[in-house]
Design brief:
Elements (H helix, E strand, L loop, with lengths): L9 H5 L20 E4 L7 H12 L4 E3 L13 H9 L1 E5 L9 E3 L3 E4 L3 E2 L4 E2 L14 E4 L2 H7 L8 H5 L8 E4 L6 H8 L1 H11 L4 E7 L16 E7 L2 H7 E2 L4 H13 L4 E8 L5 H16 L7 E7 L4 H10 L13 E4 L5 E4 L2 H18 L3 E6 L1
Bound molecules: iron/sulfur cluster.
Length: about 375
């Protein structure tokens, strides 16, 4: 079940030699949904039909729903609903609210969505508490309209205008806020279309997304023109092996990072969520050394890092404990500082002493172990 997707213990994995990163022969994981549904409206969009055709070639039949509402995913218990939803793919038209872009500092000027939901089982999942209803993975049939709509936002946005260090990126668009692109690309082709769309765009723009998967074969050789920065979401082994069920193993993600960098993509690390577990310096040291080995000798490397510490809200904690009742994730409010986020929402972050120690360590050790890497932000 989703609560126990891991077999390796921290002790076992800590001794793995991450220094030797060999590209895997094929992606470590490819999700195949148990059930595929499409709303009637999805059939009116060329990309909806393209997705259905692609799925057909993979032997997956699409079931046409009677209405544009998604039904029939609730089970008897929360866990059953979770399991059903997580094995369902829905082809839908994006809701109108998603077509008005939101600013998403510090990551990018704007976020836009090509999908919502993800088949992986991270026990700290960022989606918990921010999406409503059962976590069905929805992919958007109106991709062409979504991409065409981005033109309205070029030249606007706080990051382009205020951050000197990132001016050369142009207007930045983040496409993985509510999903994991490489978990779904083999089923949709959506992010490849986005990459070539940005590559052909006659304006200073950058597409950005982050992933915990390694299925990059289809991206090598695309006409990206350096306008897509792919970040691999990485963490130390105790986190990747205990808490990130259904994702690609860390060495596979690092091999994917190298592959993209060698193909001329600007690349990045999303180190998140950073956890202050016992011996965190040792564990994150192993990670940074593995990153250094993975990018060693890559020509014209453009590598950034985004550093995000673990945090939770009362709402995300409740949802996560429903999904993963036996999790060993540290969700103890007593050991955290209480902060008020946007719109007054409460969140629990590491206390200031821990934050300072983590930040100082990461800044020093990234500069020392991976000197080519530019840190974009810490949060
Ligand atoms: Fe959630 Fe991201 Fe993990 Fe998917 S990869 S389960 S969206 S945290």
């Amino acid at each position: 079940g989703p609560a126990a997707p891991h077999s390796a213990s921290g002790e076992e994995v800590a001794t793995h030699d991450l220094g030797a990163v060999a590209p895997p022969a094929r992606p470590a994981r490819r999700w195949m949904p148990k059930r595929v549904v499409a709303t009637p409206a999805a059939y009116d969009h060329p990309h909806g039909l393209r997705i259905m055709e692609r799925l057909g070639e993979l032997g997956l039949e699409t079931e046409r729903l009677a209405s544009n509402r998604l039904t029939g995913v609730r089970g008897e218990t929360d866990r059953e609903t979770y399991a059903r939803a997580k094995s369902t793919l829905a082809i839908v038209v994006s809701p109108p609210s998603r077509r008005r872009l939101q600013p998403i500092a510090p990551s990018a000027d704007w976020r836009f969505d090509l999908a919502e939901g993800c088949p992986a089982h991270c026990q700290y999942c960022y989606l918990a508490g921010s999406l409503s209803g059962p976590p069905v993975t929805r992919v958007y049939a109106d991709l062409d309209d979504i991409l065409a709509g981005l033109a309205d936002y070029v030249g606007r946005g706080t990051i382009t205008s205020r951050r000197a260090a990132r001016r050369d990126e142009g207007t930045t668009f983040e496409a993985s806020c509510y999903t994991d692109p490489l978990a779904l690309e083999h089923l949709t082709g959506s992010w490849r279309r986005a990459v070539t769309f940005f590559g052909a765009w006659d304006a200073p723009v950058q597409l950005r997304w982050t992933t915990k998967f390694d299925d990059v074969d289809g991206f090598a050789g695309l006409r990206h023109e350096g306008r897509t920065r792919v970040r691999l979401s990485v963490n130390c082994l105790p986190v990747t092996s205990r808490f990130e069920g259904g994702t690609a193993p860390l060495p596979a993600r690092l091999a994917a990072l190298r592959r993209l960098a060698e193909d001329g993509y600007p690349v990045g690390l999303t180190i998140a969520p950073i956890m202050a577990m016992p011996d965190w310096r040792d564990h994150y040291g192993v990670l940074l050394d593995a990153v250094a080995a993975a990018v060693d000798g890559v020509r014209d490397l453009d590598l950034t890092a985004e550093l995000i510490t673990h945090r939770f809200t009362p709402g995300s904690k409740e949802v996560l404990l429903g999904w993963y009742p036996r999790t060993r994730l540290d969700l103890d409010e007593q050991s955290r500082s209480r902060k008020h986020g946007k719109f007054g929402a409460v969140k629990y972050v590491y206390p200031p002493e821990t934050m300072t120690a983590l930040r100082a360590w990461f800044e020093t050790e990234i500069a020392r172990r991976v000197p080519a890497c530019r840190i974009l932000y810490w949060t």
